[in-house]
Amino acid sequence: MQSTDLLKLSEEFGNPLYIYDATKIEQQYHRLTDAFSKVPALRINYAMKALSNITILHLLKNLGSGLDTVSLQEVELGLHAGFTPDKIIFTPNGVSFEEIEEVAKLGVQINIDNLSVLEHFGTKYPKTPVCIRINPHVMAGGNENISVGHIDSKFGISIYQIPHIIRIVENTKMHINGIHMHTGSDILDIEVFLYAAEILFDAAKNFKQLDFLDFGSGFKVPYKKGDIETNIEELGKKLSKRFLAFEKEYGRKLTLAFEPGKFLVSEAGYFLAKVNVIKQTTSTVFAGIDSGFNHLIRPMFYGSQHVIENISNPKGKERFYTVVGYICETDTFANNRKIAEIHEGDVLCFRNAGAYCFSMASNYNSRFKPAEVLWKDGKGYLIRERETMDDILKNQILLDF
Length: 401
Hints:
Keywords: Amino-acid biosynthesis, Decarboxylase, Lyase, Lysine biosynthesis, Pyridoxal phosphate. With about 400 residues, this protein is of the alpha/beta class. Helix content is about 30%, strand content about 25%. It is globular. It starts with a helix and ends in an 8-residue tail after the last helix.
């Protein structure tokens, strides 16, 4: 997308505003499927927690994607967006058994990462196929909050507990149809991923009626010019070869599954915010915008960096700014960042705002959540209306004492 397109959408739909480029999502999806084109049975399950707008879900469904969900509500959204139950996998963590039962009744693939839950479910529903999430004890990911496959992680059943899994399966006569792992997000070294894959292959040998192996995702995207990213093409070449060799060894046709979220939607997203104030202190120039961590929390939560551009003055002389929000706590988006000269009323654009941005937005300070727009075929389409005071008051009850 061009700055002129973004400014046009800013004027049409107001600020703050989330914009998603449909073409970029399509390109990322095809890039992944092309990388694994030698695998006959490939399944991409979009991790919808990254961005769950139903129009985005529908777009990915039309590309051929399945869906990775972590809550009953995500499952219901997926069904509402047009996914059939057989295209959805449910991978919860720490939810109630009742929630797992509700999802199972919908016909969705269940993925379990807890021994006690596995035994309970197998005892009660031995004929329902179940996938098992293992913890490979491999550290991967760019931040401890998004590294989920290490030994101290709350996710997955330890590979050292495979004998316990086998005992439960034998006792309950339950059907294990898949094995799953997820090491974490922002994977830099594909050799680490391939090492974890070997652990998954070894675990799979213990189960003779598998239909699929799910390798999670966590592929890193570039956040700035020249930034490192996961080499999907190299990973596709190496893992495809190893997967096909394992399939022959296993003696049964298998589906290779992934669950990308950020990889598909991050670079497609733009977040626009208007500059309310320029504030000069003794050592810092602050650019205060009409947003805060209520709309985009990742820089404060993960320390993530988003490229920030002044699309109102893209050719202006660069100066150093600290970009901050309007929340009555520290909500700093960037410290001493070089940005084209900013004036009050300018519109700033945050790149890589497609994943874990709107989906983590809140109404903190009783602020409204922004609108969302899909950019497709040279036109902007409103896919979520900006909230109003009615949305803030909805479900609240005023008691008149």
